[in-house]
Amino acid sequence: MKRLGWVVLIGLFAMQAPFNTLALNVEKIIKHNSKNLKKIKRDNKKLVGQIELLQEQQKYSRKKITELFHLMEYKKSSNVVKETIKRVRDENRKAKKLYTSARSLLVTDQYNQSIDLFLNYLDVYPENHYVPDATYWLGRAYAAKGDRHNAKKVFVGFQHDYVLHHKFSNSLYELAIIEHELKEDKRATLLLKSMIKKFPNHNSIIQAKALLKTIQADQVTKDVTKPESKTKLETTVTK
């Protein structure tokens, strides 16, 4: 009986040893897994940090690419602007040279050549800032040449398009002279009266008033020399 008790005790001890070993193994596994888990967490945190860094770098790179794109567009636009300005300046230089040459020919009484250059200028550079002046001087060139009909046409167009131009008052006087030479004294009178009223201090106002008096005097003479006027005058003398 005593021997049986020892056997049981030994058996229990023998069974307890594997349990203890198993418990130790489980504890070791838990500790090992805990270390691995902590390592995994650290690695994961490190990876998250690297991903965030890459995202920031990507965002920065995208911003730089956008800035570079805008810079390229700006440089492209800037070059277009520079080329446009250069082209406009070249065109203005050519236009001014042509306009100046036409004026020089007019001053030296080379009317046909002057007219040709003015017409060429107006055809090639219709938007240039000398267009109003060129139009006025073209009218003067036609008038100086004696081509009254073309001169009248140019001055009428000038007065229609450039009412505020500083040569507008001059054009009134120039056109009045042409109308008078074309025997259109009523129109000439209206132009002169308009000029005298609107521009009383004009440097040609004396000549304008003198021409108006001449036209009015001629009109009186014509009225007197009309057949019906002679009849009325003879009837009055007879009475």
Please explain how this structure is put together:
- The structure is a single chain.
- The chain is mainly α and 239 residues long.
- It has two domains: 48-162, Serine Threonine Protein Phosphatase 5, Tetratricopeptide repeat (Alpha Horseshoe), CATH 1.25.40.10; 166-225, no CATH class.
- Helices cover 87% and strands 0% of the residues.
- The radius of gyration is 53 Å and the shape is rod-shaped.
- The mean pLDDT is 82.
How are the SSEs placed, and which strands pair?
Layout: H1 2-107, H2 111-124, H3 131-145, H4 148-161, H5 168-181, H6 185-198, H7 205-224, H8 227-238
Helix pairs in contact: 1-2, 2-3, 3-4, 4-5, 5-6, 6-7
Entry keywords:
239 residues; mainly alpha; Serine Threonine Protein Phosphatase 5, Tetratricopeptide repeat; rod-shaped
CATH-derived topology of the largest domain: Serine Threonine Protein Phosphatase 5, Tetratricopeptide repeat
Envelope shape: rod-shaped
- The overall pLDDT average reads 82
- CATH first level of the largest domain: Mainly Alpha
Task: Give the fraction of residues assigned to helices.
Answer: over 70%
- Amino- and carboxy-terminal Cα gap: 196 Å
Overall structural domain count: 2
The largest sheet is: none
The run of helices and strands is HHHHHHHH
The quaternary organization reads as single chain
What is the second-level CATH architecture of the largest domain? Alpha Horseshoe
Count of separate DSSP helical elements: 8
CATH superfamily of the largest domain: Tetratricopeptide repeat domain
User: Hey, roughly how much beta strand do the residues contain?
Assistant: under 5%
> How many individual β-strands?
0
Q: Which structural class should the secondary elements be placed in?
A: mainly alpha
